[in-house]
Amino acid sequence: MQLRPITINPLAGFPETEQAAVLFGNALRRIGIEARIEAAPWNIVSDRFRNKDTMHDMVPLWKSTYYADPNNWVGELFTTRHHGGRNTTWYSNAELDRITDEALKITDQNERAKLYDKAIRHIVDEAVGIFVYNTKWFGPYSNRIGGIRFSPIGNGQEMRWAYFK
């Protein structure tokens, strides 16, 4: 059986995504799958996310959280209600939707953590994405600055505790 070609859509002008596309494409070719690389600017790539019929096969990209809560990752990136928005994979799983819906109704953080752990296991078990790494950027600060903490939101810096030594 001949598989259709896989289209990899890196972000034009971002060498990290273009290099990742070449690596993925070469790996696919080694196992007999034709891969095409079509670099495009972000506005074109993100527009394709919104419609399942124009969706790419693979997009090497990075994501940052919008708010500090596990739903920001597993809930918004992989649940059905976020198709065409933050769920750029168009992945759908009724059990995952049920688990995250339940977690959203609970205020007890320990109970929520158990549910999100189950949700994350669904994502990993079904290989919904290829997760490569998450960088930490602390910025160029003077040694006279203290209190900088890592945050998963934005560029990885929590400045509320920063102070001059």
* Tally of distinct domains: 3
Mean pLDDT: 85
DSSP helix fraction:
25-40%
Instruction: Let me know the number of strands.
Output: 6
In oligomeric terms, what are we looking at?
Answer: single chain
H and E order: EHEHHHHEEEE
Major β-sheet, in short? 2 strands, parallel
General description of the model:
By secondary structure, the chain is mainly α. The protein has three domains: 62 residues; 69 residues, no CATH class; 31 residues, no CATH class. Helices cover 37% and strands 8% of the residues. It contains five helices and six strands, in the order βαβααααββββ. The strands form three sheets. A two-stranded parallel ribbon has the order 1-2. The radius of gyration is 19 Å and the shape is globular.
Summary, kept brief:
The chain is built from five helices and six strands. The chain has helices spanning 15-30, 42-49, 70-78, 94-104, 109-125; strands at residues 6-8, 35-37, 145-146, 149-150, 157-158, 163-164.
What is the topological layout?
Layout: E1 6-8, H1 15-30, E2 35-37, H2 42-49, H3 70-78, H4 94-104, H5 109-125, E3 145-146, E4 149-150, E5 157-158, E6 163-164
Parallel strand pairs: 1-2
Antiparallel strand pairs: 3-6, 4-5
